[in-house]
Amino acid sequence: MFKTMKKRLTILLVFFGLFLFFVAVQAQSEGLVPCGGSGQEACKLCDIFLMFDKIVDFVMITLVPPLAALMLVIGGVMFFFSAGDTGGLTKAKSVLTSVIFGLVIVYGSWLLINSFFLVIGVSEWTGLEQGWFSYPCH
């Protein structure tokens, strides 16, 4: 019985991994830094900050939500298939709480920094009207 549940779980995880979070290939997408290529202007120091901004945006907007959703599904499936096994229940609860705490840390830190800069009025004396999280380079 345990082998069939393990087999079902494996099939379910493969299904979610292959079909649910499929991302189309972007052949014409812009790179990390929009400079230095053929027909583009030379890179400046400012472009390092643009690259860092794009990496942070990719992680927080593109990477974290699908991974968190996948881990929540995995934790839920583990919880469902534990069938009263205390070890499995403990592991499933650990996965679910770790995902929730990770999301709170990632997005809570951004919210805390944004609130702090809003309170002290950073946009008024630095010229960052679009926010501290966007870097006007060009």
Question: What attributes characterize this protein structure?
Answer:
138 residues, mainly alpha
Give the overall form: elongated
Helicity range: 55-70%
Tell me what portion of residues adopts beta-strand conformation.
under 5%
Main β-sheet description: none
Uncertain stretches of 5 or more adjacent residues:
none
Oligomer: single chain
Provide the residue-averaged pLDDT: 79
Task: From the alpha carbons, calculate the radius of gyration and give it in angstroms.
Answer: 21 Å
The count of β-strands is 0
Brief write-up:
The protein has 138 residues and is mainly α. It has helices at residues 2-20, 46-81, 86-120, 122-126. It has a domain at 42-133.
Can you walk me through this structure?
There is one protein chain. The chain is mainly α and 138 residues long. The protein has a domain at 42-133. 69% of the residues lie in helices and 0% in strands. The protein has four helices and no strands. Helix 1 (2-20) runs antiparallel to helix 2 and helix 2 (46-81) packs antiparallel against helix 3 (86-120). It is elongated, with a radius of gyration of 21 Å. The mean pLDDT is 79.
Helix-strand blueprint:
Blueprint: H1 2-20, H2 46-81, H3 86-120, H4 122-126
Helix pairs in contact: 1-2, 2-3
